[in-house]
Design goal:
With 344 residues, this protein is an alpha/beta fold. It has ten helices and twelve strands. It binds nicotinamide-adenine-dinucleotide.
Length: 344
């Protein structure tokens, strides 16, 4: 019997890489999303069911025959979290604790919460999973509250695991150029100038979208005794960068690809979020290490930009896209009569 995985936020950056991977491994997938970034980014498949629903309104029926839940749904970055504060707490915290609670009641066996290393905020020493957290933004606080809400649900019948992901990078069908490596790569490719947030000394771990989705798949298969009620930092020591050196590595990769000089272009105020992360636990307990590094991810993105299969549109910058949707929602509501604009 094929197992069924319910993925929330399935139409997002991580979801559109994860869902095809789960299908290729023989799982059935229920893909729950508002599909703010479009339904077409997930190809149809006989084992895939699209469920267009708000995570805040998920009901018990959705969990019928579901074995595992991967709860990706979120307003997914710091600037969007600051702008849409109330929605971020509702979606990233309240709805995910509610989803986990219903999942447990409905007999789901495993629940995975994809959280973020950003909950470490600012740290002056390398931090492992036992370190005191220090979330500095609405997005990070909401993730921490979600962690605290779902972990106590773990018991012998309901396996709960938290992934504290590094900042993700690399190509995905719902592309995000608002992520550090992806944005650097695009600027360097397009303008021969790599945008770098001041002052470059901040530590930030990175993980490729293929690697973090591999961990999600592994967490569905590995013995529960190793992961139940556990938190894992997801990343690897070689991808634990200071942003200045990361910028130089990406610039070198782009320069090698294009055979052109790439300059660094500094922007913004000094970024006080800085955390260097210890990844011993995931390596020891799951026996997992990342396969991708920044240079490989940047080169892969450039290949796709060069062959025209990847473009930068407004929907690749998360906050711009949500602002556009809100603006157009108002315009359309004002212009619409009898269910249409010119054709009624
Ligand atoms: N990308 C990263 O660098 C990174 C790093 C650490 C953690 N994470 C976490 O991983 C998860 C996924 O991130 P992502 O990069 O794929 O984000 P994303 O913005 O690309 O995807 C989020 C998805 O959720 C959907 N959505 C938003 N609100 C919804 C609602 N109320 N109901 C139903 N659907 C809704 C959106 O349509 C979108 O498809 C998030 O929880 C994020 O916090 C991401």
């Amino acid at each position: 019997m094929k197992k069924t995985v319910l993925v929330t936020g399935a139409g997002g950056y991580i979801g559109t890489t994860l869902v095809p991977k789960l299908l290729s491994k023989g799982y059935k997938v229920k893909a729950v999303d508002r599909y703010f970034f479009g339904l077409e980014k997930l190809d149809e498949n006989p084992n895939l069911v699209y469920i267009k629903e708000d995570s805040r309104r998920i009901n018990e029926e959705i969990f019928a025959n579901v074995d595992f839940v991967i709860d990706l749904v979120a307003i997914s970055n710091d600037p969007s979290g600051e702008l849409f504060e109330e929605a971020t707490y509702q979606i990233n915290h309240i709805s995910r604790v509610r989803t986990a609670t219903i999942a447990k009641k409905m007999g789901v066996k495993r629940y995975i919460l994809p959280s973020s290393c950003s909950i470490y905020g600012f740290q002056d020493t390398k931090v492992d999973e036992t370190a005191k957290t220090n979330p500095l933004t609405v997005y990070a606080i909401a993730n921490e509250r979600a962690e605290k809400g779902v972990l106590p649900l773990a018991d012998k019948n309901f396996c709960v695991t938290i992934m504290r992901q590094s900042t993700v990078f690399g190509y995905s069908p719902r592309m995000r150029f608002d992520l550090a490596i992806n944005g650097m790569t695009y600027g360097a490719w397009r303008n021969k100038k790599l945008p770098l947030m001041r002052d470059g000394k901040q530590y930030r771990p990175m993980v490729h979208v293929q690697d973090t989705t591999d961990v999600m798949c592994l967490l569905l298969e590995i013995e529960t005794v190793k992961i139940n009620g556990e938190l894992f930092n997801v990343g690897g020591f070689t991808n634990n960068y200071q942003l200045g050196e990361l910028g130089e590595e990406v610039a070198r990769a782009v320069s090698e690809k294009l055979n052109e000089e790439i300059k660094i272009e500094w922007y913004g105020d000094i970024d006080y979020r800085s955390y260097s992360v210890d990844f011993t636990k995931i390596k020891t307990i799951l026996g997992w290490e990342p396969k991708w590094n920044a240079s490989m991810g940047a080169k892969d993105i450039i290949d796709r930009l060069e062959d025209g299969t990847l473009e930068k549109n407004t929907d690749t910058i998360t906050i711009d896209w949500y602002n556009d949707l809100i603006k157009w929602h108002k315009i359309i509501k004002n212009a619409e009569m009898y269910g249409g604009i010119l054709d009624i």
